Predict the structure.
Amino acid sequence: MKGKIKLLWTIFFTFLKISPVTFGGGYAMLSLIENEVVKKHNWIEEKELSDIFAISQSIPGAVAINSAIFVGHRVANLKGSLAALTGITFPTLIIVVGVSHAYSYIQDNRIVNAALLGIGASVIALILHAAYTVGRTAIHDRTTLIIGILSLAGLLFFQFNPIWVIVGGFIAGISICKLKVFKKERFSHSS
Amino acid sequence: MIYLQLFWSFFLIGCFSFGGGYAMLPLIDRQITNYGWMTTKDFTDVIALSGMLPGSIGINAATFIGYKTAGLLGALIASISMVLPPLLLIILIGKWFKRFQESPTTIQAFYGIKPAIVGLIIYSAIKFALSIEMITSISWASTGLLFIFLFTLLALHYRKVSPIITILISALAGIIFYY
């Protein structure tokens, strides 16, 4: 029992340490997680962790947080996953609440507004760069290019609800692939 | 009941937040506009602040909005309800994910979801660029923003500069240009 509680604390602190040092999105966290989980604590083998990373990207949510939940669950079930989740979100939560509170006092300050404007421009670059990174693997033929363009156009010009864009992509992906398989089969039968 | 609204909105966002933080921003934006929680100017600042701080930009933004609308409890509710969907998924069906992930239907679904996410992320960049007036007017102010934007993009792409460095530099550039 004592060992179990100690393990939970270790999981909590492991992810607590990783959390506040990662800027610029989840992918930066992954190598830190690997270092702690595989090399330092030997909780999981490298192969399994790369599976966890892959799955964490394909379910909703932030990839680093999903990975933390997965690792916690793998090491110590439900309690482990909660310990990991709390560890990885707690420091940033405190930081964000702190900044949020401070911001309400300084939001009319000219220096703060000037700095935020500059940061805004570079965040746009970060977002576009992320689009490029995802796009490189996501858009690789004419069909995926069309799905991408239609989604963007629907959002920009017709105020589509983003949720429906994702649902639309889901339906399009399955139906187009099934149609392609169906066509191929029919073609190979007739020839 | 603001707490329930926060819970439901961010739970819903959590369910559909495929493709990382930047793809979540349009979903969050949509909820804010629906409920009138924030002005566009405030949300613009929230995105800049969330991108500047460590952690996932989507969850940071959720925490900001929760705090702004309903204090500390609001911040907690917003961020917890956003991570609840993946948490439940992993706890309940985590064991079967590997098989699920390799099934042809999943692969086909992601064949369509991924390009839709690219559309969402580009939209999120365009919308944000519009709201800070980077691309709508031709003026000294917008030229400065374009300059910072291009500088960051090149630094990220060709020099693999860490995002925190580009954010610090752009904050400084912002102060020099606009103060």
Notes: Residues 63-106 of chain A form the longest helix (44 residues). The mean pLDDT of chain A is 87. The helical segments of chain A are 2-18, 27-40, 46-58, 63-106, 110-138, 142-158, 162-190. The two ends of chain A are 68 Å apart (CA to CA).
